[in-house]
Amino acid sequence: MDGMGTLQIPHDTPMGSTFDPVGGLLYEQTKHGSDVCDVSLLYGGQEQRVHKCVLMTSHYFHALYESGLLEKDEGKVTINVGSPAAIQAAIKFLYLRHVDVSLENVEGLMEVADYLQISQMKEQCTEFLARLSVGPENCVTLCLIGGQYNYEKLYQVGYDYLIAHLPDVLQHDQMLCLGVDSVLDILRDHTLLYVPADALFSFLTHWVEHDLDQRLPHLPELFDSLDLERFTEEGYHKLVSCHVLINMFPQCRDKVFKFSTKLQAGNARLNGNEKLVFLMAGHEAEPHLLLTDRGRNVEAVGTRRLLGFLPWEKRWLELPPLPIKASSLALLTGLPKSIYATESRPLKNTENMQQLYKYDITHKSWLDVRALIPYYEKGKGFQVLSLQQCGGRIYAIARSTSSLSKGHALNLYLLEEGTLPEMVWLKELVPFGIHVHPSKIKVVIVDDRYICTAIDKSEQGDQEMMLLVYDFETGEVENCSRGSLSLLMMFAREGEIVLAEPGVGYAKILTLGSKAWRTDCHLGIPDLPESVDRSGYSYFYEDDKLFLFGGSVTDRKTYMKSTLMYDFNGQNWESLGLSPSRVINTSSTVVKVGTEAVSCHINCPHCRFTGLKRMAEYEILPSPVSSVTQHDELVEDGWESELEDYGDEGMNEGEDRLNTVQVQVQNEQLG
Known about the structure:
The chain is of the alpha+beta class. The chain is built from 19 helices and 31 strands.
């Protein structure tokens, strides 16, 4: 102590040291305004008598008294920062070295502790925040405190949760405390496309109304950051176009007027209840560790990834991965609420079931379905080559060496529901009766009625493409090969079949009504803009536009990531950027699904936070060949951490279900 009886605390003394136990007795004196209290603190319209020697344990008060300012002689100190409750808590902390922290008061406590330079009190507050389970009710607080007081880890925890769960966080009043720059960053952040624009606009108007005088001038700039095409029809007409705040500013009204004009002219579109999605699964090109003279060797390998592309938004997304790695080509097809996938591999002699995987889009769950093949196909190398949906039902095109099919032939099957939800029957409809290589068929659906199967016979020297058209309404199949041409692409357009190929200046068109072919130069596709020898790509046609993905060039030594679009009206190619991976020889399908199921995108913070594998349930039966093999594949593919999602109990339940299926199959065959 110095001559005046003042406790001297060196500036390098840690404020986390334990204070003298007499602090409790001294604190009691402050409650009664004891004469031994020699300093008055003035804050919030009130006065509190305290001990100067205790105040000096704070670097703020120590510096104040050492500076020789007026407060040293007057014995009064005014505090103009923080709420009275937070200041009282800070004074109490100086005596007792403890503070009661809650989510409601932590910001106020941090503000006062920072101002008065009470480092141990700040540490207790941050320790409280670090112990919190982050959620929508506190992530904004973590961001604000972490950012303001330079606690990077605390800020990052809160921010990662906020952007990953923004629709939920927007419902909490804490978001109304954000500054204009933070709100602007959220509205301009393209990674937050998964958040409905209707929800962002509702938040924006509530945020402005929370402090109307200060925030209203910023509304034009904030509103200009919103993409009106992302609004639903109901949201745009009921929330945006007639909102009183929007109509207060000419620039906001002008933006709404111009967009409405585009809507009426058909040059813009609102976010509908359903979206068209092009799905791909199968092979990706991955670098191997094996080094060659030209660097790392690259090879196409099977993958679990299920990629999607939304053509009108030019946006990629990724759905929860397939339950199995597609070592052979994964075949896809889809209904509005479900997606089916399977592998294209010949069944072994002991197998009598084709394993399908069904993804329930609404409930986000993968379920395997056992498709029982006809008894006379067992041991005949039965192989599914294509899955298609037509008229709300699932069809399979497969080949086998069944004697009833007259050789190694192609047949059409219908998937009929069995007596158990995880079992279907492959009912043979039409024996096409033709030998075919697995990679030499193309299938398109026309008018949701015709299943059109093309078989490439160019290796046999035949320039015509064999085309078989099955009408599911009449149950008849017709050979429409005469007049066709063996070209790389086949798609449906306005109720007709189009055969085309990049670099060929014309297309062959089949009218299904007359079954007559014609040549059309307008639908001829020019050479690809990048590599004319590109092959193995995926493509689909929609609304006079052709979209093309992936593939390889120069004898499959160079794999492509570019995405291209050809506009038949403008007759030009357009680059749509890069795909998420180098896809080649993938299976693909086009489905319409609910908007909420495809709101995310590649590198979406919501998906990244949750993990794609954990965004779906996997109700998977043990493999009919070897459940151990299936388990080993999961481990080898990096799914060790995901095995708990299945769980031993779930696998046991799966075995019970499998036994039930096998008994049911035996009964059906005997019956």
